[in-house]
Every structure is written in C-alpha cells, then in structure tokens.
Amino acid sequence: MTTGSAAQSGSRSWLLAVGLFAIAAIAVPLLNLGLAEDSPLHLPDYLVLLLGKFACYAIVALAVGLIWGYAGVLSLGHGVFFALGGYAIGMYLMRSIGTEGVYKSELPDFMVFLDWKELPWYWYGFQHFGFALFMALAVPGLVAFVFGFLAFRSRIRGVYFAIITQAMTYAAMLMFFRNNTGFGGNNGLTDFKRLLGFTLRDPETRIGLYLASVTALLGCFLLCRYVVGSRLGRVLRAVRDAESRVMFSGYDVRSYKLFAWTLSAVLCGLAGALYVPQVGIINPSEMQPANSIEMAIWVAVGGRGTLAGPIVGALIVNGAKSWFTVALPDAWLYVLGLLFIGVTLFLPRGIMGSLLSKHEGTRT
Amino acid sequence: MTVPQNPSLDASDEVDTRQGMILYLEDLTVSFDGFKALDELCLYLREGELRCIIGPNGAGKTTMMDVISGKTRPDSGSAFFGIRHDLTQMSEHEIARVGIGRKFQKPTVFPGHTVFENLELALRGSRSLWHTLFAKLSGEQQDRIALGLDTVGLSDEAHLPAGQLSHGQKQWLEIGMLLAQDPKLLLVDEPVAGLSLSETERTAELLSSLAGTHTVVVVEHDMEFVRQIARTVTVLHEGRVLAEGPMEKIQADAKVISVYLGS
What we know:
The complex is a heterodimer of chains A (364) and B (263).
Chain A: H1 5-9, H2 13-33, H3 45-70, H4 78-95, H5 109-113, H6 129-153, H7 158-177, E1 189-190, E2 194-195, E3 198-199, H8 203-229, H9 231-241, H10 243-248, H11 253-279, E4 281-282, H12 289-302, H13 308-327, H14 332-346, H15 350-363
Antiparallel strand pairs in A: 1-4, 2-3
Chain B: E1 21-32, E2 35-46, E3 50-54, H1 61-69, E4 76-81, E5 85-86, H2 92-98, E6 100-103, H3 115-122, H4 129-134, H5 139-151, H6 167-181, E7 185-189, H7 197-210, E8 215-219, H8 223-229, E9 232-237, E10 240-245, H9 247-252, H10 254-261
Parallel strand pairs in B: 3-8, 3-9, 6-7, 7-8
Antiparallel strand pairs in B: 1-2, 1-4, 4-5, 9-10
Helix pairs in contact in B: 3-5, 3-6, 5-6
C-alpha cells in the first residue's frame, strides 16, 4: 500500500530530472567548448553564462516554492539569503585577488580606498574557499533561523509575515549600502580574478561553474523531493491547509515551519554562492525588495505546491526577461506585471499546477 | 479516595489519574474585552465518563474547550489534566501529546491529503521533526490505519482527497483522526451538526462505545442527541455551571428550563 496519490504521481519525476540534468550537463559543454566558434551550432559564452544564472535562479525558486508552496509561508525576503550566500563567496573572491588589485595591497581595494589599515575581524578565514562556502550556507541559515524563530513563535502569519520579510530585506540592503558595514558599500564586491586558482574569465571556468550550478540544482531538487515526500512534507502541507488541526494533533507547528524556512534559506544561499562567481559582482541592490517579489512571481507563474513548477517558472520568467530587456527594455516591467496578473486570473495553480490537474482530469 | 504517596516519582508523561479524576477545572475566568466568557467556572471529570455540556449561545462552552486544549489562556483559575499536568502552562501540541484530543465544531481535516494520509498524520507516535523526516509506516501502523478507516466507514475512500468527502464523512474522518491519536480525553464540539438522522445515530453509538476506555466531553445543541448519549449533563450559563446531573433531573430543573430548555 502506498501513502497516496501525491506520492504516486511524482514517483518517476526523479528519472525525468536526472535525464534533463544529463542533457543539460553534456550538451552545453559540448556545444560551447567542443565546436569551433564559427560553427552554426556553437553555443556562445554569454549563453553559457545565462544558463548558469538560470540554474541559480531555479534553485532560488525551488527554495521559495518549498516554503510557500508546501508550508504556506509566503516570503518576500529571500533576496537577502541569496545575497548573503553571494557575499560570502564574494569575500573569498576578494581575498583571492591578493595583491593584484588596483592598489597592489593585501587588503581589498575598497578598504584601501576607505583608508582602512587592517582587515575587519569578520573577514578572517575567508581566504579559504571551504570556509567561505560553509559560511555561504551557514549565515543565511542562521539569519533565517533567528528571524523565523522569533516570527513563528509570535505566530506571525500570511500577509503580516510577508511584509516583515520585505522590511528585513530592505533593512539589510540599507545596512550593506553603508561603507562602514565593511562589504564595499553600494559598489559591493567586484573585480574578481580567480576561483580556486582558475581564472574566472576562461571559458573552461565558465563551463565548470555552469556544471556546478546545474549539479546543485539537481541536488536541491532531489533533496526537496525527498523532504516533501516524507511524512514531514505531509505535515508541512497539513500546516498550510489546516494549521490548528496540526497543532491539536500534537505537532509543534513552529519547529516544522522553522525547519522548512531555514532549509529554504540555506538553498538560497547556495544559489547566491554559485551566482556571484558567474556574474562577477555582488552588491546591495540584490537585496532590493523588488528582487524578492520577483522570486515569488517565478513560483506563482510556475505553480505552487509542485517542485517542478518553481523551476519552470524561473526559467520562463527569466527567459522572457532576457529577451525583453534586450528587445524592448522599457516593456519588461509591464510584461512581468501582465504575466503575473494573467497567471493569477487564468492559471491560479500556475503552469505546472494547471498541467497536472488537466492530467489528473483525463486520468479519472 | 486515597492520596498517592508521591506522584512526581512517576517520571513518564502519563496522565496521573490515581485520584479517579482526569480533569480539574477550578475557578476559571476568561474575559474578552470585559465580557466574561467564563466566570469562575468549576468542573470535574471522572476518568472514563461521558459528559455532555449544553447551554445557550455565549454560555462559554467553546471557551472552556479552548482553555482545556490550550488555545485560550485563562485570566485566573486552574486547569489540571490528572493531578500533574497544568494545562495553563502547556502549549497546544504539548496538551495534545499528553492525551487530549479535540474535534472542532466545523469539521477540520486536511483537504489536500488523502483520507489515508489524514489518519497517518493523526496516528499516535513520535511527533519529532527528525522522526517524521525519516518515518516509514510499519505493518502494525498500517493495520491501525486500516482499522481506523473501517471504524469510521471510509475504507473505500482511503485514497480520495479528504476535501472531496461529504460533510458527514468529514465529521467522521475527524473523529477517526481523533481516535487514531488515541487520546485519554476527547473534546468533541457539536459532532452531529449537519448530519443526517442515521449518521447521528451512528455517531451516538460510536461516542457511547468510547466511554469507559476514554473520557469524552461532548458539546452539543441537538437535545435529542444529548438524550441519546447523555449520562451526566452539565448546563453552562453565562460562564458558570448552572446545573449538573442526569438528564431527567436537568430537564426538570426550573432554572435550566427558564434559561435554556424553555426558550
């Protein structure tokens, strides 16, 4: 006996995911590095970068989808966790510049510019990649844990919670804008040279980062798939649908929300850590409230309550964004707004949700 | 009654009912914006009894249930489960874990989960995060779910989303979830609201059969239903106990007639 239709319908989704991953992981390097640049099938470097970024966005969408689609907690502040992960890796990348900066100093350029004489204590350790990667996951996780602990303990829910997360990301942005905070102020961290000894500009490094991103996406998908398929996942969905029933059934709702919330933030941090070496910059604008809202739109478009939905949503919205911001730059925000309204009106369960319900409809 | 030597020696979470009583509500007062929903309410329940609580709207029935299940904190007074568990100091899930189950007035099930999954989540067992992350249903647990499905007559609907059940089936599923939780004390709020006559009868039979092994508190407006199951009836009025006793005595009570039955 299986435990229900939800588990059954998704029982082979991992095969599909692994298959798509294999195609993405083999085809892209082959078409980029394997073909001569004048070949019509050659995949230009900028597209590799774009696809790598999309993989990072997809991880973010997965993280937002986990907490919103399954636990019913809408976050409009996940940009913070993404940025914190990015800053942690950015700090490593800054330290690994060494004395090759403009000022030929051991200190990052912006510190020399601010006339700082020594490294602030919280920059210690970031010369080690392993430490920076750990912090890219641990710092967003810790921030989310403390924030969530306080918010869930006070039983802040729904719109109120969403508004507080907006305030959180806005406050963090203002903090990071300050030069005194020690993360490069409004310029952020940039001019990176090397990652683990590899020159960031090399096509091979690009491909390596792309592969790391799609591998991380697959890993995050399988992890989330395990979590939502477990009894814990069923408790989360129950919290979403009838929170008081869960409490009176003896479950400590707070700890379940806190788990999903913290896990979601950690995944977001990982996405940020993969994103920053590819785009070569991290600055406080990543924390502007609109960014986090856009993340929620990816999930709404793709479909809440599924794992594939947020990934699809992130790819569609960002694909459209890439095209529009080149072809019709002024139109993009209108298109995004219309897309969101259209999905809300006509596909309330999002693209994947509507596809699934159609599929279920034909089956029964 | 014998006074136990030292109840705190028993280290388990088990409710201590060696006094024969399972619930002690003493001088409970709850007010909302100056309105006293409960006014120094005193109520005791013997282990294994089936008690019906009746009273006009606003008498404090639901508020009393809320205090027992931890949803509402009293302004003053005490609420003890057995002689050891101070309910006013425990959160909702802790109260549920020591063995108080609650059925809401409006049937509350998990609409997106199948009937089977509803019972799985309600099933007695560890509620810890790590346990639920790795939990697999044992054969014994599957049998218990199957038995539960049978008890509430939903075996054929096991793999249907609970949201698709009829109103009566949802009421029964919620009762089934309560039973799967295996509580010592069941708080049942208006179990037959919106049920057909035959469903009402089956509910009456089920609740009556639970008494003895469980303590059951039923809040109900349907007087016919109360007559069917009641052994002891407590009448609440304006947050206090107006009368308590067997149904025949209550029906003849002049005070009760004037505030409730007569109206």
